């Protein structure tokens, strides 16, 4: 279980380590040094050692890391040893794309239910996932034991829908809307904003990674 004192930046790197360890394991590799791991995941080895130190002794000095035990450890820590059903709220342009993708790369996370107010799509099945009307949301979330949702509704309704989700017992929201929604303690929000990411990239290109002026 991830300790709540673990920094957000460390928690965000865990899936990267987990994914790469899976690739290594499938290719037959048994052991890896922190330097090799650092080169592969593009995270410096001091950061990797610090990240791993939050979980106690995961490797041995001079030996490196045992790939299988590290993989098993992260699998458990990231809850990848069991299937997690998530719900999608708002099946518009972005919602359809996410339904279509449905985390094909992961065996352990899937969208099992989606919700919308548009009666042209409620009652249908899209990409293998049933779309329910919002008035069935609470009942379905409880029945399917869903605690995590992906929020892709228009921003003007995002707070109202979030309040409904929290009342229905949701504990985690992956928020794609531009609104920074408010929730009570105990509910975790992870914001995803492609515009921000793109603006940050463009900022770095223009201010930090400026190519040297040509001397010709
Ligand atoms: N984070 C990102 O990078 C990113 C990228 C694109 C879009 N977005 C955001 O994602 C959201 C969805 O964008 P889109 O282009 O798919 O919009 P869209 O209008 O195509 O889809 C919104 C869907 O939500 C449904 N909806 C409206 N009110 C609802 C309610 N109260 N309850 C449930 N469903 C409701 C609509 O019927 C529609 O199907 C917007 O907030 C948009 O700003 C974020």
Automatic annotation (TrEMBL):
Residues 79-180 form the CoA-binding domain. SUPFAM superfamilies: NAD(P)-binding Rossmann-fold domains, Winged helix' DNA-binding domain. SMART domains: CoA_binding (SM00881). It comes from the Bacteria. Residues 16-55 bind DNA. NAD(+) binds at residues 90-95. Keywords: Cytoplasm, DNA-binding, NAD, Repressor, Transcription, Transcription regulation. Its main location: cytoplasm. The keyword NAD applies. It is found in: Cytoplasm. Homodimer. HAMAP family: Rex (MF_01131). Belongs to the transcriptional regulatory Rex family. Modulates transcription in response to changes in cellular NADH/NAD(+) redox state. PANTHER family: REDOX-SENSING TRANSCRIPTIONAL REPRESSOR REX (PTHR35786), REDOX-SENSING TRANSCRIPTIONAL REPRESSOR REX 1 (PTHR35786:SF1). This is Redox-sensing transcriptional repressor Rex. It comes from Ligilactobacillus pabuli. The gene is rex.
């Amino acid at each position: 279980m991830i300790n709540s004192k673990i920094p957000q930046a460390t928690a965000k790197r865990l899936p990267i380590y987990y994914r790469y360890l899976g690739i290594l394991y499938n290719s037959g590799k048994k052991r890896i040094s922190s330097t090799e791991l650092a080169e592969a995941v593009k995270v410096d080895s001091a950061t990797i050692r610090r990240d791993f130190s939050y979980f106690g002794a995961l490797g041995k000095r001079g030996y490196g890391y045992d790939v299988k035990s590290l993989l098993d450890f992260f699998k458990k820590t990231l809850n990848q040893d069991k299937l997690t059903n998530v719900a999608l709220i708002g099946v518009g342009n972005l919602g359809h794309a996410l339904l279509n993708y449905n985390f094909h790369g992961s065996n352990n996370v899937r969208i099992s239910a989606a919700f919308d107010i548009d009666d042209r799509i409620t009652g249908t099945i899209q990409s293998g996932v049933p779309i329910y009307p919002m008035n069935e949301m609470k009942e379905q979330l409880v029945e399917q034991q869903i605690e995590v949702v992906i929020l892709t509704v228009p921003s003007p309704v995002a707070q109202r829908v979030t309040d409904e989700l929290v009342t229905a017992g949701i504990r985690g929201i992956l928020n794609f809307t531009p609104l920074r929604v408010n929730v009570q303690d105990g509910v975790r929000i992870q914001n995803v904003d492609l515009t921000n990411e793109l603006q940050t990239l463009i900022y770095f290109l223009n201010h930090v990674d400026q190519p040297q002026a040509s001397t010709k």
